[in-house]
């Protein structure tokens, strides 16, 4: 299900703002982007995400702003490295300029990427959590709109099934009258076995009562799923396929119902699209 969420958290040292966006997907895919190296806590972030989401493609954008200057090196380590370089240069009787000595000491004094300021970690975690909570709220609001749309489309299909139920009797009666008219042209009475057999055969081939019964059962299941709190997207998609099959069979049996068939298939295609939007 699509959705957007925002989160913001800050303290006296850091500010972390997050934007979370989701798109439809069968599984859960997570993409994390940031202007700061957050690899030390990526596992923790992904674990938090799984507490909120089970499906969808999530894009997480994390912007970090330091409020105080952050040195990329350990000052104490620089001082230690300088002393070490002086000692080595003295033992080897080497002449090293102050600039060169500082560059070497700096290079080997950069902070380990696995180290992370606990204050920054707290800010990032809190802002990501807030963004995910906002995202879920956004998805729930969209879910209500989807639920309303699905309900309306189910009503259209239900009304069409009722129309078919009323229309089929007229169609079957017309078929019966055509057989009787043909029999009359041939000089056969209405009660002649051949005439009765032909009527029975024709009407049995056009019997759609089973298809209508199954369609109504599928529609009832869809209504039940619509009010369920469980993950129902895949179940709805399967039922839509079953409904499509019944409607195809119905249309093959009575071609005169083609307009109704097209109308219902159109609604089912839209139902499948909506089912893909929900979990």
Characterize the structure shown.
There is one protein chain. The protein is of the alpha+beta class and 279 residues long. It is 63% helix and 13% strand. It contains eight helices and four strands, in the order E-E-E-H-E-H-H-H-H-H-H-H. It has helices spanning 42-52, 75-91, 98-107, 118-185, 193-205, 209-226, 233-253, 258-275, and strands spanning 3-10, 14-23, 28-34, 56-66. A four-stranded mixed beta sheet has the order 1-2-4-3. Helix 2 (75-91) crosses helix 3 and helix 6 (209-226) packs antiparallel against helix 7 (233-253). It starts with a strand and ends with a helix.
Measured distance between first and last alpha carbons: 7 Å
User: Roughly what percent helix?
Assistant: 55-70%
Biggest beta-sheet profile = 4 strands, mixed
Within the largest sheet, what's the order of strands? 1-2-4-3
Regions with little confidence, pLDDT below 50 for 5+ residues: none
Mean model confidence by pLDDT: 86
Strand fraction equals 5-15%
Rg to the nearest angstrom?
Answer: 35 Å
Note the overall shape.
Answer: rod-shaped
How many distinct helices? Answer: 8
SSE pattern, N- to C-terminal: EEEHEHHHHHHH
Per DSSP E runs of 2 or more residues, the count of β-strands stands at 4
Task: Provide the structure class.
Answer: alpha+beta
């Amino acid at each position: 299900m699509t959705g957007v969420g925002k989160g913001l958290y800050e303290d006296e040292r850091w500010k972390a703002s997050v934007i979370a966006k989701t798109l439809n997907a069968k599984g859960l895919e997570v993409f994390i982007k940031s202007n700061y190296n957050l690899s030390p806590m990526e596992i923790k972030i992904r674990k938090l995400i799984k507490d909120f989401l089970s499906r969808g493609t999530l894009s997480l954008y994390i912007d970090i702003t330091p409020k105080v200057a952050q040195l990329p090196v350990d000052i104490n380590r620089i001082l230690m490295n300088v002393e070490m370089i002086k000692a080595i240069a003295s033992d080897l009787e080497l002449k090293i300029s102050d600039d060169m000595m500082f560059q070497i000491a700096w290079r080997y004094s950069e902070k380990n990427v696995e180290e992370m300021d606990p204050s920054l970690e707290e800010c990032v975690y809190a802002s990501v959590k807030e963004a995910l909570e906002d995202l879920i709220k956004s998805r729930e609001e969209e879910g209500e709109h989807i639920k309303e749309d699905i309900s309306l489309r189910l009503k259209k299909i239900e009304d069409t099934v009722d129309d078919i139920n009323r229309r089929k009797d007229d169609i079957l009666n017309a078929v019966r009258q055509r057989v009787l008219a043909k029999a009359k042209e041939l000089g056969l009475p209405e009660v002649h076995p051949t005439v009765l057999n032909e009527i029975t055969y024709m009407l049995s081939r056009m019997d759609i009562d089973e298809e209508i019964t199954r369609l109504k059962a599928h529609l009832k299941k869809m209504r039940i799923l619509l009010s369920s709190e469980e993950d129902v997207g895949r179940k709805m998609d399967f039922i839509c396929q079953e409904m499509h099959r019944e409607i195809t069979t119905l249309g093959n049996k009575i071609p005169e119902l083609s307009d109704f068939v097209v109308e219902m298939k159109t609604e089912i295609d839209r139902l499948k699209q909506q089912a893909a939007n929900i979990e």
